[in-house]
Each structure stands twice: as C-alpha cells, then as structure tokens.
Amino acid sequence: MPFGARKNLGLVLGIIIFIIGLLGLFFKIPSAINVIAWILAVGGLYLIIESITEFGARRAIALLVAFVVLVIASIPILNQLSIISFSIPGINLLVYHILLAVEGIAMIINAFGT
C-alpha cells in the first residue's frame, strides 16, 4: 500500500484518469479535445514530478510515458493559444482516451514504488 500524501494523491489521480480513459473508450462521452488535452498535460507533468523519485526501469518507463503524453497533449494546447502554427492532423478522441488510460496505468504503477 502506498504511504505518504504524494503517493496517495498519485494513486487517486491515476485511478481517476484511468477511469476517464476507459469510459471514453467504451462509451460515447461528449467532451472537447481541449479539455482532455489539458487533463493529459497536467497528468503528464505530475507523472514527471512523481517519477523522479523512482529507481530503475519503473522510472524510465514512467518518464517515457509522461514525456510522450506531454508532447502529444501540449501541441493542440499551444496551437489553441496561437504559440505554434501547426497541429497534429488525424488525432481524434479515441487516441486521447487511449493516452489517458496508459497515463492512468503508469500513475497507478508509480504510486506503489519507492
């Protein structure tokens, strides 16, 4: 069982993000891509912060997942804010919900680490 406020918060956030991802995969939930992109970006930042304290392969996998999710999620956000002038064509809600589920799993696994 994870101990400490940071690990418990990571576990709860991981479960919530994983459930949002699964609900979006199995049911048609009306949601905007921008809202899901913000959830992914914030979750990716938290996963980076949380995985710094891990060791070994768990740290490498969590950082890889966090950076990939953060890059994919931040491109539409930066495009919406007119900071960059390009976007990733062809990314729909299904891809975002898959990324939410993967990020949630990584956060849950990371919560039971050191």
Q: List low-pLDDT spans.
A: none
Question: Which percent range fits the helix content?
Answer: over 70%
Rg? 14 Å
- Find the structural class using helix and strand composition: mainly alpha
Ends distance: 11 Å
Domain unit count = 1
Shape: globular
Q: Helix segment count?
A: 4
The overall pLDDT average reads 86
Helices and strands, in order, run as HHHH
As a percent range, the share of strand residues is under 5%
Q: Mind describing the biggest β-sheet?
A: none
Strands, count: 0
Description:
The protein has 114 residues and is an all-alpha fold. It has one domain. It contains 4 helices and no strands. The longest helix has 24 residues, at 57-80. The chain starts with a helix and ends with a helix. The mean pLDDT is 86.
Topology:
Elements: H1 5-26, H2 33-51, H3 57-80, H4 93-111
Compose a concise summary of this entry.
The chain has 4 helices and no strands. The chain has about 110 residues and is mainly α. Helix 1 (about 5-25) packs antiparallel against helix 4 (about 95-110), helix 2 packs parallel to helix 4 (about 95-110) and helix 3 packs antiparallel against helix 4.
